[in-house]
Amino acid sequence: MEKERKRSLRVVLVPFPFQGHITPMLQLGSILHSNGFSITVVHAQYNSPNPSSHPDFSFIPLPDTSSGPPVPGDIIASLVQLNTNYKARFQECLAEVMRQQGPDDGIACIIHDELMYFSQAEAKDLKLPSIVLTISSAANFLARAALIQLRAEGHIPFPESMSQNLVPELYPLRFKDLPIFEKLDDYLPIVSKAFNNKTFSPIIYNTIECLENSSLAKIQQQYQVPIFPIGPMHRIVSTASSSSLLEEDISCLTWLDKQSCKSVIYVSLGSVAFMDIKELVEMALGLANSMQPFLWVVRPGSVRCAEWIEVLPEGFKENIGERGYIVKWAPQKEVLAHGAVGGFLSHCGWNSTIESICEGIPMICRPCFGDQTVNARYVSHVWRLGLELEGDLERGEIERAIRKVMAEEEGEAMRERAKNLKENIELCTKEGGSSYNSLKRLVEMIMSF
Ligand code: UDX
Known about the structure:
The protein is an alpha/beta fold.
């Protein structure tokens, strides 16, 4: 009887239209679907998820606004556009879903990305409960709260001389590790609003208690709302459907099959970060000089003023031969799970960080913006699973970092810690584990709405 009631409940998901946000939201959808809920995804038209990868979900595109899509890849422009223009349209979409529902098919709640905070007010108008999905770490959540506070007190922007100073109450974060974006004046007012809303809504985190116990405890202490750390979601989800917006080049898996165990350094800066040509060249030469086999993802358009890798030094690919493999986009989770991969040079987006930790892979951190600096600091100084490349990207530094992580004692110790953490995380998702229990509480809460 209870089961039947659960099956007829619908959850409406509202992802923020970027890869690193869409992936965890769809993973959450799959998890809830396998717990008996029907899923509707209301999404922007650009970076639209592929409905055929999720045949059990309903997809409703938000009608395009007259202002059109924002600057491609510009997260802040998207943030401003979506939160100012999509409000009314979202309400129309919800009203439509409600009109279509039968007597046994009610909307239980809206789960929205924290950056799609406009959906919360609309849900309230329709008397629907809402839940927030935070796609980054609990540590970042606290760091962002501190950033808003410091800004209000006039400490941000901070002088260069303060960049290495520790932020009070946020050890081991330094001022330079705060989750700062270039367009802070556009970003912070919106995030402040989203953040205030969170005092009223339960929050889901794609994190794990054994990883972020103290940050989660602080959040629980400071915000009187239920919190649900149910990560790592990619490990809980039972279906293997891809949420990739770009085509994955699976040929790299065949190349990996030919490499020896733990020998390959995998390099990817995620779906949003950009590099200059100079940085691309330094990276290429650092990888080449390390003499370690490497698999490198260079997203087309991710190098400023270049199409792809045509700007690499002449003869680079020939010199590398079979020792290096470059793709436009990789099946990252399979790559990290492959026995040949021994290290990950990453921008430390939260999905990449957690995917790497779950495979027990040590990291070389090259954060670019936002939460990545927080994650990198935690990887290097709290979990001690990696080291950070700071300052200008330089071939010698890259080469030394690769050697340390892949071939020296320091790297071996990181690998050992990563292996232990991986095992602890696996326990958290099993029956009776912290993530298992959080998910159970979440499902019960949604059913009680
Ligand atoms: C964005 C922000 O930049 C990041 O800071 C935030 O934590 C999440 O949102 P992104 O930069 O794309 O994300 O990084 P990340 O969070 O690591 O997500 C990238 C996703 O793309 C991962 O799930 C990864 O597995 C996938 N990926 C990446 C691939 O499938 N193939 C690739 O070649 C590269």
